[in-house]
Description:
Elements: H1 3-15, H2 19-23, H3 27-43, H4 49-64
Helix pairs in contact: 1-4, 3-4
Amino acid sequence: MNNQKHGIPALVSLFIPGLGQMIKGDFLKGILIWILGGLAVVFLFWTIIVPLVIYVWNVYDAYNSN
């Protein structure tokens, strides 16, 4: 595996969720992460679990997606 192909998008997604998917060319998935992450933060602000799960999945997906 080429580390640059997977590592850079994952690193970028740590700071801006969805941007790593957009760097890899999956714009629809990146926009959906922005929307779902934003909605989870707004409507589920009282819990940290759901936004955290979306955040962790975002970084994992940016690293492992094609």
